[in-house]
User: Fold Tyr recombinase domain-containing protein from Salibaculum griseiflavum.
Amino acid sequence: MKLTKTSVGKIEPQPGKQLLIWDSELRGFGIRVSPGGSKTYIMQRRIGRTTRRLTIGRADDISAEAARRRALSLAAKFAEGIDPVAEERKLRARAKTLKEAFDDYKAAPAKKGGSKGNTKKPQTIRDIDKAMRRFSDWLNKPVSEITGRMVKDRHAKLAATSPAQANLAMRYLRAALNHVIADCDDDDEPVLKSNPVDRLSRLNQWAEVKRAERCIPQDRIGDWVNAVQTSLGGIRCDNEARDALLFILLTGARVGEVLGNAKDGYPPLRWADIDLRNNVVTFRQTKNGTDHELPLSSQLVNLLVERKKIADEDFVFANRQGEMPTDLRAALNRIEVATGLHITAHDLRRTFATTASRIDISAFKLKRLTNHANGGDVTAGYVQVTTEDLRDAMQRISDYLLSSARTGDVVQLSEARA
Assistant:
């Protein structure tokens, strides 16, 4: 029938069945009637080998005459070989804002590491959100309007305050724009022909950021350990802070793997992950997305045996009341006053790794001890280092750090804990 206001008004829905009624004058123009009575104007034509069916609008919202005019416009595009669906998709893609690009990137699965294929971790999402704030005045701009010059100037401005944060913000910007480039059908015209952040590489403009190298000086290890043992009395959860610091020093663990991190959803280390029969600790779902298993040195076994006498039933570094340090800054500040050494929890991890290197533990074992990804090292991928392979290394590291030559008689980890 010819679709008019009158004829459309007379169409009755059929229960349980969708109706398609085509206009008798304009090929491909029709109306779709749902079982519930909803009526929607459509236009259907073939373009190449593809059949496109486009929604024009609901009959309640648009007149039959207006729908016909819209259908005629679409018919003209089809006649010229233009695919309106693809054209609309391109327009939407070119209009994608930087905020939308960042949001899409945050929602996309991780592309590498142990979390590959999984949703991004809360810490990563927070880092992306922080990077977005560096581009707050760009967020409503279409990504196609972000130029290499804009990137170059913004990076220089950010680097004047913090080179490391400038680099990090630009890496996340590059990743978000790369995701836009990748999320494009093969036959579509790309929204971005190149990533504007690549200009920093062409100009060699990435800021030079020196890796933090601070660790406990070799000749001060005894002083620091002595302060841990004797200087923390009176602070909240002093026994737990003391044992946690020594545990981090002797395992190279990240503080979040020991005390947990509520923001990232990491629980504190549990007794269920301490195997005192086989002398092994397992850190669950670590930073690189995998479980990390380490053998325990005899000193660590002694520490944990004594710890169990005064600890919570579930968490290793909680007291009988379930209380534990939320962080270790109060303890570290107290130790700094006693020793003059400004050392963070992560510096203890560096001290552990530096000690391993100093006593000639192989690079492959060191990667495994610190749970670092291979980073594209093909040879490392062939070398399989088991937990048992690390037992001697862990014992040697503990012996070195707690040897009487460095610590005198104060480091008796098997002594009862007050």
Notes: Residues 163-182 form the longest helix (20 residues). The chain has three domains: 5-82, 94-202, 218-407. The longest strand covers residues 39-47. The two ends are 93 Å apart (CA to CA).
